[in-house]
């Protein structure tokens, strides 16, 4: 699957066996491999992973690839200690599938991605909402890691909206949620 400058390297199955998906994330920020080119892999807007046009249906394989995902500027890569290959990401690489409230003071919002990663919103992991300029439809995101975001699925955003509190800011009604003492704007209403 990955191609080094001179020869092919491990198959996806061999890579899966080399990376323990139950351990902490690998130290991607410490790895500086050579760029080996782009591969025909993409992550669709709805979070599905494809390789050579076919969907990767094994959750363990998707989880393994997500653990070696890296972002530089606007580009995404799969990165190992010895190679870095470019992939296409249509929107953002992660899908946020659930949220729960934890802690008492300050309250925390704990999110789970489709690959099982857990992230608590706060200063390090902010929530942001983009509005479609034509439809006004919100697109909510959460910073996951290494500058990469996850898109909150509709049910998660609806849960946040249910917990949101109304505030008057500069004469406008704004709906917000708080996590780790940080307030996040979900929109006006």
From TrEMBL:
Signal peptide: none annotated. Gene3D superfamilies: duf1285 like domain, duf1285 protein. It comes from the Bacteria. Residues 26-92, 93-186 form the DUF1285 domain. This is Proteophosphoglycan protein.
């Amino acid at each position: 699957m990955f191609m080094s400058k001179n020869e092919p390297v491990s198959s996806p199955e061999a890579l899966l066996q080399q990376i323990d998906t139950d351990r902490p994330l690998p130290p991607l920020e410490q790895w500086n491999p050579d760029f080996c080119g782009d591969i025909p892999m993409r992550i669709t807007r709805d979070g599905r992973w494809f390789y050579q046009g076919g969907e990767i249906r094994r959750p363990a394989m998707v989880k393994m690839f997500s653990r070696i995902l890296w972002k530089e500027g606007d580009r995404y890569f799969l990165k190992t200690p010895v190679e870095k290959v470019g992939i296409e990401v249509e929107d953002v690489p992660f899908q946020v599938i659930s949220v729960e409230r934890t802690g008492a003071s300050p309250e925390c919002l704990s999110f789970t991605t489709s690959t099982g990663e857990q992230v608590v919103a706060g200063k390090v992991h902010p929530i942001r909402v983009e509005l479609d300029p034509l439809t006004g439809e919100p697109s909510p995101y959460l910073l996951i890691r290494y500058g990469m975001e996850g898109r909150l699925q509709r049910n998660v955003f609806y849960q946040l909206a249910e917990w949101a509190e109304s505030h008057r800011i500069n004469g406008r009604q704004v709906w917000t949620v708080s996590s780790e003492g940080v307030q996040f704007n979900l929109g006006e209403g």
